[in-house]
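Below is our example:

___
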Amino acid sequence: MKKNLDHIGVAVRNIDDSISFYKNILGAELIDRYKSDAVGVESEIAIMEVNGARTELLAPTNNTTSPIAKFIKQKGKGVHHIAYKVDDLDDALVELKARGVRVLADTLRTNKHGRRLIYLNPADTEGTIIEYCDYPHCL
């Protein structure tokens, strides 16, 4: 199955400072900024774009339950995940299962932009958090 880099997710402590850095130093454009209070997300997200390449800045909104807060506490701020766009997420899940790669089933969701996503189990990816995603309702 064909895969393309979709975006890189970066865990940050202060989203305003991070947006400023991306805009003023990297010349990024702020594409969107929103909060997700969904269980297992609990983050503020800023989508930044530099010459077509997207980075999601992820700041925890709940320092007790947000997975981003947990990540920062354990590993510090920095690259949280790498997302790969697949043609069809359902087909990709079948392929992963056939190859013995587990996913974190509770992370399966559709975000506000219509992107369906799921995270692969880091125990099966050499420790890297990898997201698979598709855009079934977008052109």
In short: The mean pLDDT is 94.
